[in-house]
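Example 352, ligand spermidine.
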Amino acid sequence: MRKMLIIMLTGLILIGVVFSGCKTKQRTLYIFNWSDYIDPELLQQFEKANNCKVKYSTYDSNENMLTKIKSSRESFDVVFPSGDHVSILAAASMLEPLDRKKLSNFPNLDPTLLKMAESFDPGNQYSVPYFWGLTGLIYHKKNVPAEVIADSSWNILANPYFNAKNRVTMLDDAREVVGAALISKGFDLNDTSENALKAASEVLAVWDKNITQYDSDSYKNEVPDGTTWMAQAYNGDALQQMAENPELGFILPKEGSSLWMDNMVILKSSSNKDLAYKFLDFLMDAENARINAQYTQYATPNKAAGDMLDPEIKNNVLIYPPRSYLDKCFMIKSLGDKIKAIDTVFEKIKMF
Ligand code: SPD
């Protein structure tokens, strides 16, 4: 009898140990996002509130993100593709259809922007808008005289002032680079017709004489430190640098610009979907979205957060340009197989 009692007690103690271990065992959420695109304090808060670890990795282009999630042995739970890449990932059956019941903060999103997002994700089935933005030119006032900027055109990139200086960069992004050339010639950024791409190639051949490198990250350090004088840049990234350094300027070129929306998605292969849902919902919380928008300086699709933004963010025309400017901008669309024509133009320019 006594022996039986000891066996039962030992069993109970073992069960207790196993269960308390489970309770405290931390889950890990794998996030893959653009660089400089979240307030790091929010990640810490999320970890604390959910007793979990966040393993956070970054990328600098949709193309790199796609290659990595297809090839990496590490599996990611939450990724932040731009609209055209939401379409690409959904067509490849890589996305989890979102269960709105698990996203209590979804009503915080702006219905107008959700409607726009339907152009790449019909029914908002797989993605939740995260931030939207525009692409322009960042420069150092000490290195680029006001008269060079005055024209406020994409063609500043061809200005003889930059000849033989090796001080100008563009993004390593076919859609952005070829898109800027198309827009500068009055075409839609999504135009893949022969005459549009011929015109874009001619413009790029001229700009390229002044371009030192096509790179999507280095301008964030190199414009402030003077290595680069002017760079094609995402508006929020430029504004983050400008907040630290009043000698920097940024323009949205007068011809118009690319307009993009980045989104949160859960990968079908995620092994942590419940935690992934919690993360999406956490970032959609009005206060968290406000904090994040103020930190990143990108435009938030979260209406509840937008209403609470500091006036200097809300009224900044480089973040929220007037309707008259947005009408000249083009949303980057998924082009299916036609993307090859744009890639070819870009690769040829990079080869010279
Ligand atoms: N550092 C964040 C940059 C986000 C840019 N995303 C959109 C790219 C569209 N080409």
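Summary: Residues 34-37, 82, 173, 175-176, 234, 237, 260, 262, 332 surround spermidine (CB under 6 Å).
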